[in-house]
Structure to design on (374 residues):
């Protein structure tokens, strides 16, 4: 909104210095700062409100016993993150841009699904929250909408995406795209559903999920800017998607919101973000890679999220297999997801979180290297 006002003032009155607001890099910086301010401002207010109405985390049976002390910590703090992302994007982003509209839709829609789940858990005291099948249906519907728009109405985003509507770029290879054809929409549904759930699984230690999301969001801001820049995209031999650079405003806001929320969520956490934040953030990461045609970067870019998810799947299916074969279920990990395994080994929570940050940075460096090593 401020972007439009400043643009109008610049066009009609040619105010010196106002031309800088047309640059994505400048607005991305403003979005990061604004997100930090919003998170710092509304954070204490939201935490007080959650405490007032006793909206706290219940003890989890599937977590190590050391987590019992966390019972009662305010949850649904994802509202702080969403406020830190949405407000700066609305202020500094081009809201007429199809890419921006799509990513805002995914974030708000999945945020509502997560909010409903948290509400049922902590307010209505239903242990399971939103039934998993209903949650999955919501994620699938959102994925179907995004996939259908890109496949059937690519012009909604921009004419430059038409030729790539059902394809994605291949890491490490120049001028090579993988066309999914009729499987494109199911692929989009899978990515958005998988990433939203993967970040949800990662959200088990103080600061773990939000910190890794912030690191990944920074990388996505760079990739989005490059994809929407004709010169840089040509230099790096990746498809140029006009208008996709505006997504870097959203990603920058995500970085600022992550840093702001981490202030309250770092060990020992004053608030947890709950499904309200984790589902929205995970879905947004998946949707951005879909919109900029970098879906195949997710396994490295979101490497930590992938490892966390695989640890749960391996544990679950190996336990079922050994129980069926030997009559007694066996485990690969001491506890899943993966971060709980290291807790059971005796690692301190801050050490696990810090090391997972380091691994995420290494994954991000590898992902960015694929643009040059082609």
């Amino acid at each position: 909104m401020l972007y439009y006002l400043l643009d109008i003032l610049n066009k009609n009155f040619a105010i010196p210095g106002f031309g800088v607001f047309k640059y994505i890099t400048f607005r991305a910086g403003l979005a990061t700062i604004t997100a930090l301010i919003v998170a710092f401002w509304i954070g204490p207010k939201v935490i007080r409100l959650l405490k007032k109405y006793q909206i706290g985390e219940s003890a989890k049976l599937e977590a190590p016993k050391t987590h019992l002390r966390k019972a009662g910590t305010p949850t649904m703090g994802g509202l702080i993150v969403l406020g830190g992302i949405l407000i700066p994007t609305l202020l500094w982003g081009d809201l007429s841009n199809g890419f921006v509209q799509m990513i805002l839709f995914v974030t708000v829609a999945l945020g509502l699904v997560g909010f409903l789940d948290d509400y049922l858990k902590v307010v209505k005291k239903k242990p399971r929250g939103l039934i998993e099948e209903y949650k999955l249906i919501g994620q699938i519907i959102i994925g179907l909408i995004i996939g259908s728009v890109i496949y059937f109405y690519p012009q909604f985003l921009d004419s430059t995406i038409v030729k790539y509507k059902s394809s994605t770029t291949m890491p490490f290879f120049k001028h090579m795209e993988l066309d999914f054809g009729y499987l494109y929409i199911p692929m989009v549904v899978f990515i958005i559903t998988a990433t939203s759930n993967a970040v949800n699984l990662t959200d088990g230690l103080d600061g773990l999920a939000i910190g890794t999301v912030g690191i990944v969001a920074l990388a996505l801001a760079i990739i989005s800017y490059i994809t929407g820049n004709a010169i840089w995209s040509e230099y790096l031999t990746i498809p140029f998607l006009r208008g996709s650079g505006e997504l870097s405003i959203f990603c920058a806001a995500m970085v600022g919101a992550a840093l702001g929320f981490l202030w309250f969520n770092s060990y020992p956490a004053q608030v947890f973000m709950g499904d309200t934040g984790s589902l929205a953030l995970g879905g947004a990461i998946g949707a951005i890679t879909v919109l900029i045609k970098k879906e195949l970067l997710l396994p490295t870019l979101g490497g930590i999220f992938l490892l966390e998810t695989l640890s749960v799947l391996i544990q679950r299916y190996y336990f079922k297999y050994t129980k069926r074969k030997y009559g007694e279920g066996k485990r690969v990990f001491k506890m899943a997801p993966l971060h709980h395994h290291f807790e059971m080994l005796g690692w301190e929570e801050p050490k696990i979180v810090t090391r997972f940050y380091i691994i995420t940075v290494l994954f991000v460096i590898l992902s960015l290297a694929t643009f040059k090593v082609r």
The chain has a mean pLDDT of 92. Residues 2-294 form one domain.
